[in-house]
Design brief:
Order of helices and strands: EHEEEEHEHHHH
Helix content: 25-40%
CATH architecture: 2-Layer Sandwich
Number of helices: 6
CATH topology: Alpha-Beta Plaits
Largest sheet: 4 strands, antiparallel
Number of domains: 1
CATH class: Alpha Beta
Shape: globular
Structural class: alpha+beta
Length: 204
């Protein structure tokens, strides 16, 4: 199996995964909340999250790995410590969620097809379009007729003024404010074919 390069501090990534054989990951509404709770527990200290979307059988996140100085060291011995492995934290998240679902629904076996896939975000244009792509995913997959009504994405959290762990201010400033953020989503929702090819290879 080809080894993937480590996720590097300060870089932006699109990370994603899906259920094994496209199995449903979220069987009931509260499963979505559980996954986000575990995401915060295992990853909030190590990544900044700019967008996300949870769908019945797959998930998408847009994150920036925090600076190496922000990664809490893991104690190996009294004399040695190493930086937290983001890949390991992602694995903890998937394992914790799978164990909870297996126990609750009396199932056995693998829940996720693989550990998180990733693609580095290397341009401003890609970042901008990826925020939209992640939010539009439920409509893209025919789960809903209006992506903005999907309750399990960051679209409304970014527009709201409630407490959030998202990088709300940064996202809104990136788009030029709330109205321009909304307008970009609405305009591209009407012509998704112009966005999809730019996210080629990120589909799960």
């Amino acid at each position: 199996m080809q080894q993937k390069s480590p996720l590097e501090p300060n870089k932006f990534y699109h990370i994603y995964t899906r259920g094994n054989n496209k199995e449903t990951l979220f069987k009931e509404q509260d499963n979505y909340g559980l996954f986000l709770q575990l995401y915060r527990k295992h990853l909030a200290s190590y990544v900044d999250t700019f967008a996300y979307c949870l769908l019945p059988n797959h998930v998408h996140f847009l994150v920036q790995i925090k600076d190496g100085e922000d990664l809490k060291p893991q104690l190996i011995s009294e004399d040695e410590a190493k930086l937290v492995s983001i890949e390991r934290q992602l694995g903890h998240l998937l394992n914790a969620y799978a164990k909870s679902i297996n126990h609750r629904y009396n199932r056995i076996g693998r829940l996720f097809q693989h550990r998180f896939g990733r693609k580095e975000i290397t341009s401003d244009a890609y970042f901008t379009r990826l925020v939209f792509y992640i939010h539009f995913n439920p409509q893209h997959h025919g789960l809903i007729n209006d992506f903005s009504r999907w309750p399990h994405s960051s679209y409304h959290s970014i527009l709201s003024e409630g407490k959030t762990a998202l990088q709300r201010k940064e996202v809104l400033e990136w788009f030029g404010g709330r109205e321009k953020y909304k307008a970009f989503h609405d305009e591209n929702a009407a012509d998704f074919t112009s966005i999809a090819p730019l996210i080629e290879g990120d589909e799960v």
